[in-house]
Design a protein that fits this description.
The structure is a homodimer. By secondary structure, chain A is mostly helical. Helices cover 76% and strands 0% of the residues of chain A.
Chain lengths: 386, 386
């Protein structure tokens, strides 16, 4: 891709994102819904103004890393930990219920066991990016319900990795490996604990050193460098990069120059984050959403209903007073890119066929697109605290 | 390139850039020299910590576009135009002298005419990026000498394109085309005049409209969108993208929210611009700098001397009082990536052989690396005005 083409693609992505985001805000929706729809519109399968490319994909990945870093910076580790047990309960229900419902539905529909396991696994994912962005758009990140959702979504991401490893192994070898599962879970938890503990211990010293630097822009570069380093480490040990970025944000949130970092990160996030949501939208093939073909409509509808109900059930795990069950339940619904990865692996390993893949993708998209307006309705009437 | 690898590369690039930049500032040099050296060190030919990739290349290109946009934002179109005649004189001497000296040296050394023309053409380039960054590091962008250098460097970029087109045609077909040259020059000047005139006419209205937006981060995204759009257009019509970015900066510099845009662009530039200078350094192959091989040392030395002298002569074109001739002359010396492109085309078209290519690359690198410390010395004693 030449430089001119890349710059033009970026210009189109930004223009579409801002126009659609603004339009959505004007009609009382969140900007992120506009960015997703803008992506569908300009994507290769509708208007074809922008094509997917390795570079756009990389910029989008940097965008979601920056988003989770920013969300981490705005979060309070102490409060996340205090909501920890609550988040854990929500996360486990939010994995168990969708899996059981998806598996049951598939078996009842006459699918083979392995296929049913894959369908169940795809339903367990939670996309922390969508919900975090919606809560941020609504100015609700600092509320208790938001902390429960964020904590549960991060745990879900880790559990999702465990399930992904187990299911991939099952698809490729037919063997269910509990050792693999335990190993991944242990690695992920150890990484998080060690990274955050070391970070909190040494970050203040490092930042004082950065404070003595004369070169321009040292604070923002070292802050993003720390984020990118933890994200890369996180990816290297098999976790999602966004988990490392979130941990980096949590660490720097407890340091003295936090407000300065947040202020300087804002324009960077303003530029990069929309690229991520627009490219998520670009992956949508409206042709694949045709549920009327081959009589698959009823299964797609049932699957989507189960996907929504399974995560709503997670809200029932809320035992703390003052934390809205509906808000937590709805906040867990979006599958986003995580669900697409699951479905893609199933397709690549020929566990599921094209028609079932289309049904899963439809489920992922519906679950992703309904959440911004739904949360907006749930938060109507009360005022944001951020 | 996987996400983890990309993030790790970025982390290494930023760490090396900041550490080396800081070290250079501590010993009284400019940060940009540190970033260039950091690139040589971590590049594939020395430590091999980071490898060139399409994505890093794209981020670097975005970096230099952002840099010229920022330089444009900090410039005053009126003062650039008032220095216009002075800049034009400097630019023409800075093209004619190096070409004549390079051509003469090559003929005297017994090279064929076509090769001599190529050598002369490679010597005409000026890298506006290096000098603009040094002046910015030194806090001197708003001085008259800086305006003369910036104006002349932009004109040199346009003249360079004309020469590049003529010389490429000559290399490929053996025919010298004056029509092509005139066409490119006309296109470039018309683009600049029309873009800036339309921009100044309509930008205030568009920015007032952006000011009414509710979505977060509208100002920075629309400002960068405008920059990227002009850069893409500029690239599309055959001009360098940085010329369009500089024009976009000049336009927005005259609008009311200029200070807000500058403030928000700063962290974005802090992150992206070093990526450009580090990757310029990464392209250096120290093995290629071995001028002792094949007895080419004397020619390489003569070529480099001629390259420096030819651009220093441009300083003699300064007739305005209070504009330092040495500062202007030295500011025109760096060839940067433009010189490398010329040499590369010569090599690709087999006009020049590998040994001559090495000599040209050495000349480009020496001319690029000596300027930051040299300008630093020239500005010692007087205080910056920015």
């Amino acid at each position: 891709m030449g430089l001119g083409e890349l710059l033009l693609s970026l210009a189109i992505v930004w223009l579409a994102a801002k126009l659609a985001g603004e339009a959505m805000e004007r009609v009382g929706q969140t900007a992120v819904l506009g960015e997703l729809l803008a992506g569908v519109l300009i994507g290769p399968r509708v208007l074809g103004l922008v094509h997917e490319s390795e570079i756009l994909h990389a910029l989008a990945e940097i965008g979601v890393v920056i988003l989770l870093f920013e969300i981490g910076l705005e979060s309070d580790l102490g409060e996340l930990l205090r909501a920890g047990l609550q988040s854990t309960v929500v996360a486990f229900i939010g994995v168990a219920c969708p899996f059981a419902l998806g598996y049951g539905l598939a078996i009842w529909w006459g699918k083979p066991t392995l296929v049913a396991i894959f369908i169940g696994a795809t339903l367990t994912a939670t996309s922390v990016g969508i919900t975090a962005r919606v809560l941020s758009d609504l100015g609700r990140l600092r509320e208790t319900a938001s902390r429960v959702i964020l904590g549960a979504a991060v745990l879900d991401d880790i559990l999702g990795l465990v399930i992904l490893a187990v299911v991939t192994g099952l698809a490729q070898t037919g063997v269910f490996s509990l050792t693999t599962a335990a190993l991944i879970l242990a690695k992920a938890l150890i990484f998080l604990v060690v990274a955050v503990a070391l970070g909190i211990r040494f970050a203040p010293t490092l930042l004082r050193w950065v404070g003595t630097m004369r070169a321009r822009g040292s604070l923002i570069v070292y802050a993003v460098l720390f984020c990118v380093l933890l994200a890369a480490l996180s990816e290297r040990i098999g976790l999602a990069a966004i988990i490392g970025a979130f941990a980096a944000g949590l660490v720097l949130a407890r340091t003295e120059p936090r407000a300065h970092i947040e202020e300087r990160l804002k324009p960077v996030a303003d530029l990069f984050v929309p690229v991520f949501f627009v490219t998520v939208g670009m992956k949508v093939d409206p042709g694949m959403l045709n549920p009327f073909g081959d009589g698959a409509l009823s299964f797609t509808l049932a699957l989507t209903a189960v996907a929504v109900l399974g995560k709503l059930a997670a809200g029932l795990g809320v035992y703390q007073r003052g934390v809205g069950r509906w808000r937590v339940g709805v906040g867990m619904i979006p599958r986003g890119e995580v669900g697409l990865i699951f479905a893609g692996i199933g397709l690549a390993n020929r566990v599921i066929e094209q028609e079932l893949y289309s049904a899963l993708v439809t489920m992922v998209l519906v679950s992703t697109f309904i959440v911004p307006p739904w949360l907006k309705v749930l938060y109507r009437g009360s005022r944001g605290t951020d």
